[in-house]
């Protein structure tokens, strides 16, 4: 029986239980390095970062080995194309020590809380009450609750692998990241990503919602930028009605998708764009 190659030392260092010899990885990696958070003064790295653009075809192979390696792959983007430090990844501008655990948070309660805030005058004081109500019609300020899970969709692995290759084809400068996370939803918390900081200070709360989307919609985390997040979706909404319920969750989760996204800036218009869409993108200002 041929044994799989154990993780090299720089990847074992990503795990709290670094002495565990049971993890393995048979996929050769390009040159890269573990990244230590710059502000926490620790020695344990938060993630592994490739030194250059991620090779085509590598992401799906690493995703397929996640069960053995314990490493979730990410396609990482920088603040801008001219950023020599490749912020926030290259310079360790992350805060894993500031995050709680995703399992400590209830996604419905989080989304309800964010919805209440995002529909308040304090969140968007340039709008009149009537204009704010129009943005989130037909729900107004009343949180509609979690959207029901749709019928089983496509294979989540096939959809996420395809999206990863599509992202690389359109943006070949993306770098590969590897995070010691049990599931993709948790990878952004383990890495200490602070992209939604202006709306959510604890990224574990983001991961709690992502866990729920993994379970209900077959969503998978694939791309993460300075303040952007890209998910694949195996079971997207098929009707306008179901899309509207999911759009409410998106507005609570990331209101800038509606407020600063494609016009018209209403939940109904945003929902139209979710129908049969196998990728969800979020951007926090």
Automatic annotation (TrEMBL):
Annotated source species: Saccharothrix texasensis
Limits of the DUF4253 domain: 175-285
Pfam families: DUF4253 (PF14062)
Name of the protein in its database record: Uncharacterized protein DUF4253
